[in-house]
Fold this protein.
Amino acid sequence: MLERSPLSAAARQADTQGPAEPVAWPRERWLPWVTTPLLVAALIGAWHVYVVAAKVSPFILPSPGSVWTAWVEMLWSPRAWVHVRMTVYATLLGFAWALVIGVGLGVLIGRLRWLEVTLNPFIVATQVIPKVALVPLFVVWFGFGITSKVIVAAVLAFFPILTNTVLGVKSIDAGHRDVVTSLNASRWQIFRRLELPSALPYILTGMEVGIVLAIIGAIVGEYLGGSTGLGALMIAKMNAYETDALFAVILHMTLLGFLFYFAIGALRRLLIPWHQSASR
């Protein structure tokens, strides 16, 4: 007689014990909607109390109410939305370039060991260089227009997308690759049916980091060399000593970053609803 495998015995034991206890998903879903507003309200309250109790000058630290008023005025200003559009355009265009190049190169590096060994020192070298130091050089090369901002955004977003793509391609189970190879699948079929779905969770993680770095790069480029965009608007408010408006611009930048980040999260739930990370 064939001996019963421990795996089958464990499976039968699990069946006799009944289904596992459900995971407490409802609490995890509604908890952030309660704790986050409470923490934000506590932070704003502490800010207001400190400003009033310590009699801080509005030039140093404005009250939350004055920042809110300045932000509402910014929302009603057509000129401010011109700056917002320029920042969004530079961010998305730079991110798109980083995504195309990062994913394409990451797939090649993940598949070809010799290419990884060859390019790895150059890729690391591009990341250890402080990006802020490159902005003046980009301005000299490409001028004060949108091109230099797009390049800075792309350079910052490139590395996390590339590294996560390489990790995703390398993380494919060798047995799965052997199965599709034994079925005489072409290179394109292997990529479309196996490599891309398996690497998508990693690629989307790199995109989440990359989109945040892209908006940082665009704003830094506007901050150091430009006349339009939220970075340039922030410099204008600083030079005019409008501290409350300066805080309002920072608030708008923060909300814009959240919007981009949650957009990638929604894309994750759309593309890989089967993956555990999509339920976060």
About this structure: Confidence is low (pLDDT under 50) at residues 1-24.
